[in-house]
C-alpha cells in the first residue's frame, strides 16, 4: 500500500509517555495486533513512526535501529542488514526493498499519540 | 531565431538545457508546448513513485526554471497542426504560433495490441504519472493482477504491482522467454526462477486473445483456450512513436511508425527536427533516454551554428534492468555467435547467477554479453566492449574475476581511453570527469553538479568515484577519507579531535565536529572512539542510541530478533560449578547452548526482556560480560600448556587469562582476538589472531596481524623471546597504535597490510619506539584497564537501563509474539526467515 496517510479519518491513539522514548532513538508500540516503531529525533524536536517490520527479511526490529539523516531526510537503519528507510515517506534509501508504512505522531501534555487512518485499519484488520 | 519544441518530456528538457548553454538568451527565443499538465519529469524513475517519491521529486525542473531560462513553457497544450508553408503551429485550443525551427520531441505512447476488451476498467498502461495514479487507486480493491509483456518495462510494472500489494502477480510473455530482446534462453531461465522466488508467476509462449469481464476486467483468455482470473491488468507490449502530428503534416514516417530523420535529426522538412523516442533513424526507434539526449545534443549544436560538426551515428543499446531485485544487464551484442566469435559462459544455477561474454575469435575483443544475478562488472565490461579495449590473455577473468592475487580496483578505469563514455545517460566521457577533478571537483557530489555525470540512472557512480580517487592520487593529492556526510574527517582525525576537546557523548561530538543528525555509519564509529578513549559505560550519557544494535542491548541480535548471551571464560578455563550454572540458566530460560569456536559457551534465543534476569543470575555466579557483541576484545584462546602437556614450555593458560583480563572490554575499530600456545605445535592457533603469543625456550614470541574470516592470513612475527612484562608492554603499544589510527571496521590484518613499510615499520614503532609514543600509549592503556567495569553488572543494577530491555514500550511484560521456535536435536532453534 502507499504510505501517504490521507488526512480523512485519522484515529489518534495514546502510545506512551514522552520520557518513555530514548532521545534520538526508538521504541516499539503495540497497537491491537500491530507493532509500530516510534522514534524521537530529540535534536530536531521531531517525532516519526513507522511499521516495526523490516520488509527485507520480515523482521520485527526497526524500532531497535539506528536513526539519523541523509541530506536532511530523517531515516532509520535496520539492525540486521542496514537497509535504510525514509521516515517521511517510508521509501527504501539504499536498496530495492519495498517501502514501509509511516504514521503521523503528535505530542500533547507529555503524552505521545500515533495516528492510524481508518484505511490502514481496514487493510490490516 | 524562434525555436518551438513540441512535447515536454525528458528529451525536450535536455534539449532546452543544451540549447541555452550553446547560445545566448537573445539568440534563441524558445517556446515549449507540452500535452501533459506538469513540466517534464523523470520517466526513467517513474516506478520510484510507488516507493514514495512524489510527482515533485520526479520533476526534472520546476516551471520556475523555465522562467529563469526565459523559456516559455505552455503545459496542457496539444499541438494538432503544423502549417509548414507559413511555419506556424496550432494547438487544440486554437492558439497559433510561428517558428523558424521546429523540434518534435513527442516521445511515444504505450502500444496496446487490438485485443477485444482492452477498454475495460482495470486495464492500464505504464507510461505517465497519471497512469500510476489510476493504478494505485484501482489496486486498493484488487487482489490479483497480470502484466502482458515480459520485457524491461513489463517486469518493472510487475514489480510495481507487487509493491502495490497485489500479492498474486502474473507476467504473460508472448515469446518463449523473458526479455527476449536482451538476453538468451539460459539467462532467461535463471531470471525466471529468480523472479518466481520474488513471488511473480511467469507464463511464457502465451498470447492473450481476449480480456474477459463486464464493465471491469475479471480475467484474460489466451489463444490456447486457457484462462487466468485477474482483477487488474497492465499492458506493456512495446511502445508506439507519437508520429500522428508528423503524419498529419505530411512529414515522412516509417512503415511501422516513427518520424524519419537524417544524421542531423532533420525530418523530410529541413526546418523541422525530431528527437527522442519519436525519431526513426536508419529504421530504428531508440527507446532509451541516453540516445535521446545524444540527439538533443546534436540538434542543439546544429542550430546554434555548429554546422555539421556533430551528427547522430546510432547508439549503443546496452541496458541494465533496475528495481526488480535481480541484477540483469546486457551489453554490446549479447547474442553474437558463429565463426567469428567465442562464447564463455559461467553459470551457477543454485545461486541464480548467469554470465555470458562473447569474444572475438582472436580472443582480443569483447563483443557483448549478458549478466544475470550479479552485474557489478557491467560498467567495466560495457566500457571494455565499447572502447574495444584489448582483453587480458585469459578473457574469462573478466567475468570470473582474477583468481588469486590482489586485484587492483582502479587499474580497470585507468586503462580506459579519455573518450570512453562513463555516464551514458548524460554522455560524459572519462576525459570530462578527470578534467572536472583537475579543475577542483573533489567529491562525487561536486562532479555530479559540474558535469552532470551520474545524475541519470546513477549506474556509473562507482566508476566516477574510482576515477576521482585515481585522478587525485595521480596529482599527488591526499584523498580525503571521510566518515560520512555528517563528519568531514577520517576516523583517525576524529579520534585525535575528540581526545583533544575531551568530548564525552555522541551529541557533543556531533555539535562540535559534525553536522546534521548522524547516521548508522558515524554513530557506531564515534561511539567506538568514545569507548576506546574513555572506557566509560557505553549505555551512559544518552550514548545508548548511538550504539549499534548489538552494543545497545549488550548482546548479539539473531534471526527472529532474539539475542545470544556469551559470558567471559578467560583462556577457556572453567570450573565444574560454573559449567553447572550455565546449564541451569540455559534450562531455566530455555536457551540453545553451543561451544563456540572461541573456547567458550554461547546461549542463544533469549528474549530481549529476559536478558537482564539471565545476566543477574550469571553475575551472581561470578561471570561477567564476554563482549561477544562489541567491536572489542573477544577471546584469548589457550592450549593447556606446561601445566599438563608433556611438550609445554610455559604456562599458556595462566598467561592467556592474564592477557584476557587485561584487555577485556577494550573497544577498538574492529574486534580483536588473541591466543597463547605453550609451544610451537601451536594448538591454540595463535598465528591466526590479531595478536598471538607462542612460548619458546627463552620466553614468548609475539605475532601480530593474523586473521581468520574470509581472507585468512597468518600473523607476522613482531618480537621474540620476550619476558611476560615486555610482551604485555609491546601489546599495549601495538593495540593503542591500532586503535588510534585504523579506519572503522578494519581488523589489524587489513590495517597492517595498508601500512607503508609493513611489519618492519610497525616493529620500529612498537619495539624501537621510533615515534616516541611508547610511554604515552602505555599510560593510556593503563588508564583504560583501570577504568574497566563489567557493563552488564552496571546495566542490571540501573533501573533506567533495565527499562530499555522490553519489546513493547506500552506493554513491557509482553514478549514479541512474532518470535517462533522449532526443535532440533532436543534443543530449540529459531524458525528460519524467508
Ligand atoms: C558464536 C561463534 C560461532 C560458533 O558457534 O563457534 C561466532 C558467531 C558469530 N560470528 Fe564469528 N563466531 C565465532 C568465532 C569466530 C572465529 C573463530 C575464532 O574466534 O577463533 C572467527 C575467525 C577468526 C577471526 O575473527 O579472525 C570468526 C570470524 C567472524 C567474522 C569475520 C571477521 C573478519 O575479520 O573477516 C565475522 C564478521 C565480522 O565480525 O564482521 C564474525 C561474526 C560473527 C557473528 C557475530 C555474526 C553477527 O554479527 O551476528 C556471529 C554471532 C552469532 C550470535 O548470534 O551469537 N565472525 N568468528 C564464535 C564465537 C566465538 C566466541 O566465543 O566469541
Ligand atoms: C516506466 C518506464 C521506465 C523506463 N526506464 C528506462 C530506463 O531504465 N532507461 C532508459 O534509458 N529509458 C527508460 N524508459 C524510457 C524513457 O523514459 C524514454 O526513452 C524517454 O522518456 C523518452 O523521452 P522523450 O522526451 O523522447 O519522450 P517522452 O518522455 O514520452 O515525452 C514526450 C512528451 O511529449 C508529449 N506530446 C506528445 N505529442 C504531443 C503534441 N502533439 N503536442 C504536445 N505534446 C505532445 C507527451 O505527452 C509527452 O509528455 C522508461 C520508460 C518508462 C515508461
Ligand atoms: S561462520 Fe557465519 S554463520 Fe557461522 S557463526 Fe560465523 S558469521 Fe554466523
Ligand atoms: S531484515 Fe532488515 S535489513 Fe535485512
From TrEMBL, chain B:
InterPro entries: BFD-like_2Fe2S-bd_dom, BFD-like_2Fe2S-bd_dom_sf, FAD/NAD-bd_sf, FAD/NAD-binding_dom, FAD/NAD-linked_Rdtase_dimer_sf, NasD-like, NiRdtase/SiRdtase_haem-b_fer, Nit/Sulf_reduc_fer-like_dom_sf
Residue intervals of the Nitrite/Sulfite reductase ferredoxin-like domain: 558-620
Gene Ontology MF term list: 2 iron, 2 sulfur cluster binding; 4 iron, 4 sulfur cluster binding; flavin adenine dinucleotide binding; heme binding; metal ion binding; NADP binding; nitrite reductase activity
Record-given protein name: Nitrite reductase large subunit
Gene name of this polypeptide: nirB
GO biological process: energy derivation by oxidation of organic compounds; nitrate assimilation
Assembly and binders: Homodimer which associates with NirD.
NADH-rubredoxin oxidoreductase C-terminal domain location: 318-388
Amino acid at each position: 500500500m502507499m504510505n501517504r496517510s490521507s488526512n480523512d479519518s485519522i484515529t489518534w491513539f495514546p502510545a506512551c509517555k514522552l520520557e518513555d522514548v530514548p532521545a534520538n532513538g526508538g521504541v516499539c508500540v503495540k497497537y491491537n495486533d500491530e507493532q509500530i516503531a516510534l522514534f524521537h529525533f530529540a535534536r530536531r524536536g521531531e517525532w516519526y513512526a513507522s511499521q516495526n517490520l523490516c520488509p527485507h527479511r520480515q523482521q520485527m526490529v526497526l524500532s531497535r535501529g539506528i536513526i539519523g539523516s541523509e541530506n536532511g531526510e530523517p531515516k532509520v537503519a535496520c539492525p540486521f542488514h542496514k537497509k535504510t528507510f525514509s521516515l517521511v515517506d517510508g521509501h527504501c534509501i539504499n536498496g530495492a526493498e519495498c517501502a514501509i508504512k509511516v504514521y503521523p505522531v503528535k505530542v500533547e501534555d507529555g503524552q505521545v499519540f500515533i495516528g492510524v487512518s481508518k484505511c490502514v485499519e481496514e487493510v490490516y484488520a | 531565431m524562434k525555436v518551438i519544441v513540441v512535447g515536454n518530456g525528458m528529451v525536450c528538457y535536455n534539449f532546452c538545457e543544451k540549447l541555452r548553454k550553446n547560445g545566448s538568451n537573445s539568440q534563441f527565443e524558445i517556446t515549449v508546448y507540452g500535452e501533459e499538465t506538469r513540466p517534464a519529469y523523470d520517466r526513467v524513475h517513474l516506478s520510484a513513485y510507488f516507493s514514495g517519491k512524489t510527482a515533485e521529486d520526479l520533476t526534472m525542473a520546476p516551471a520556475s526554471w523555465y522562467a529563469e531560462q526565459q523559456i516559455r513553457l505552455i503545459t496542457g497544450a496539444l499541438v494538432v497542426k503544423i502549417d509548414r508553408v507559413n511555419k506556424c503551429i496550432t494547438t487544440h485550443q486554437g492558439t497559433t504560433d510561428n517558428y523558424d525551427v521546429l523540434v518534435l520531441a513527442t516521445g511515444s505512447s504505450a502500444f496496446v495490441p487490438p485485443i477485444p476488451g482492452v477498454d475495460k476498467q482495470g486495464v492500464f498502461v505504464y507510461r505517465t504519472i497519471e497512469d500510476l495514479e489510476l493504478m494505485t487507486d484501482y489496486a486498493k480493491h484488487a487482489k490479483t493482477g497480470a502484466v502482458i509483456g515480459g520485457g524491461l518495462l513489463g517486469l518493472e510494472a510487475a514489480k510495481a504491482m507487487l509493491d502495490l500489494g497485489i500479492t498474486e502477480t502474473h507476467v504473460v510473455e508472448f515469446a518463449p522467454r523473458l526479455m527476449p530482446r536482451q538476453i538468451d534462453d539460459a539467462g532467461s531461465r535463471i531470471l525466471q526462477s529468480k523472479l518466481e522466488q520474488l513471488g511473480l508467476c511467469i507464463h511464457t509462449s502465451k498470447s492473450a486473445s481476449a480480456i474477459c469481464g463486464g464493465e471491469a476486467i475479471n480475467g484474460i483468455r489466451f489463444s490456447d483456450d486457457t484462462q487466468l482470473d485477474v482483477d487488474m491488468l497492465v499492458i506493456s507490449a512495446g511502445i508506439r512513436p507519437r508520429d500522428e502530428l508528423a503524419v498529419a503534416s505530411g512529414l515522412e514516417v516509417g512503415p511501422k511508425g516513427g518520424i524519419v530523420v537524417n544524421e542531423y535529426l532533420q525530418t523530410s522538412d529541413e526546418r523541422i527536427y525530431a528527437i527522442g523516442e519519436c525519431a526513426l533513424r536508419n529504421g530504428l526507434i531508440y527507446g532509451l533516454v541516453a540516445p535521446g539526449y545524444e540527439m538533443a545534443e546534436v540538434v542543439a549544436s546544429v542550430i546554434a551554428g555548429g554546422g555539421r560538426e556533430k551528427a547522430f551515428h546510432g547508439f549503443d543499446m546496452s541496458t541494465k534492468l533496475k528495481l526488480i531485485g535481480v541484477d540483469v544487464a546486457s551489453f554490446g551484442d549479447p547474442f553474437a555467435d558463429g565463426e567469428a566469435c567465442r562464447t564463455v559462459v559461467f553459470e551457477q544455477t543454485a545461486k541464480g547467477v548467469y554470465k555470458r561474454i562473447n569474444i572475438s575469435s582472436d580472443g582480443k575483443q569483447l563483443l557483448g554479453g549478458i549478466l544475470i544475478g550479479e552485474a557489478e562488472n557491467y560498467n567495466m565490461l560495457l566500457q571494455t566492449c565499447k572502447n574495444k579495449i584489448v582483453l587480458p590473455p585469459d578473457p574469462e577473468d573478466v567475468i570470473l574475476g582474477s583468481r588469486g592475487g590482489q586485484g587492483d580496483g582502479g587499474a580497470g578505469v585507468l586503462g580506459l581511453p579519455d573518450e570512453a563514455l562513463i555516464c551514458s545517460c548524460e554522455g560524459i566521457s572519462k576525459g570530462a570527469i578527470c578534467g572536472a577533478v583537475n579543475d577542483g571537483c573533489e567529491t562525487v557530489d561536486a562532479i555530479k553538479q559540474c558535469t552532470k555525470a551520474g545524475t541519470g540512472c546513477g549506474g556509473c557512480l562507482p566508476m566516477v568515484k574510482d576515477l576521482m580517487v585515481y585522478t587525485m592520487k595521480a596529482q599527488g593529492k591526499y584523498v580525503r577519507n571521510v566518515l560520512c556526510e555528517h563528519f568531514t574527517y577520517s576516523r583517525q582525525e576524529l579520534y585525535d579531535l575528540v581526545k583533544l576537546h575531551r568530548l564525552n557523548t555522541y551529541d557533543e561530538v556531533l555539535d562540535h565536529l559534525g553536522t546534521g543528525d548522524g547516521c548508522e555509519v558515524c554513530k557506531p564509529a564515534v561511539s567506538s572512539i568514545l569507548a576506546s578513549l574513555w572506557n566509560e559505560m557505553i549505555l551512559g550519557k544518552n550514548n545508548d542510541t548511538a550504539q549499534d544494535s548489538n552494543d545497545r542491548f549488550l548482546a548479539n541480535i539473531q534471526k527472529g530478533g532474539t539475542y545470544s548471551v556469551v559470558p567471559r571464560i578467560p583462556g577457556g578455563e572453567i570450573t565444574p560449578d560454573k559449567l553447572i550454572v550455565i546449564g541451569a540458566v540455559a534450562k531455566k530460560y530455555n536457551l540453545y547452548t553451543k561451544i563456540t569456536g572461541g573456547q567458550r559457551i554461547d546461549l542463544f534465543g533469549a528474549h530481549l526482556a529476559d536478558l537482564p534476569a539471565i545476566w543477574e543470575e550469571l553475575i551472581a555466579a561470578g561471570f561477567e560480560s564476554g563482549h561477544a557483541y562489541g567491536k572489542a576484545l573477544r577471546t584469548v584462546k589457550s592450549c593447556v600448556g606446561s601445566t599438563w602437556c608433556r611438550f609445554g614450555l610455559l604456562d599458556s593458560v595462566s598467561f592467556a587469562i592474564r592477557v584476557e583480563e587485561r584487555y577485556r572490554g577494550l573497544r577498538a575499530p574492529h574486534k580483536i582476538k588473541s591466543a597463547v600456545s605453550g609451544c610451537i605445535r601451536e594448538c591454540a592457533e595463535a598465528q591466526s589472531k590479531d595478536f598471538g603469543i607462542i612460548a619458546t625456550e627463552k620466553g614468548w614470541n609475539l605475532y601480530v596481524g593474523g586473521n581468520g574470516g574470509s581472507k585468512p592470513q597468518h600473523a607476522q612475527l613482531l618480537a621474540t623471546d620476550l619476558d611476560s612484562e615486555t610482551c604485555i608492554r609491546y601489546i599495549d603499544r601495538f593495540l593503542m597504535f591500532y586503535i588510534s589510527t585504523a579506519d572503522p571496521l578494519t581488523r589489524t590484518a587489513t590495517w597492517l597490510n595498508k601500512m607503508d613499510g609493513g611489519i618492519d615499520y610497525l616493529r620500529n614503532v612498537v619495539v624501537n619506539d621510533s615515534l616516541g609514543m611508547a610511554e604515552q600509549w602505555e599510560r593510556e592503556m593503563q588508564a583504560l584497564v583501570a577504568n574497566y567495569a563489567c557493563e552488564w553488572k552496571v546495566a542490571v543494577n540501573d533501573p533506567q537501563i533495565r527499562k530499555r530491555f522490553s519489546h513493547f514500550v506500552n506493554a513491557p511484560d509482553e514478549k514479541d509474539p512474532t518470535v517462533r521456535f522449532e526443535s532440533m536435536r532436543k534443543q530449540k532453534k529459531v524458525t528460519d526467515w524467508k
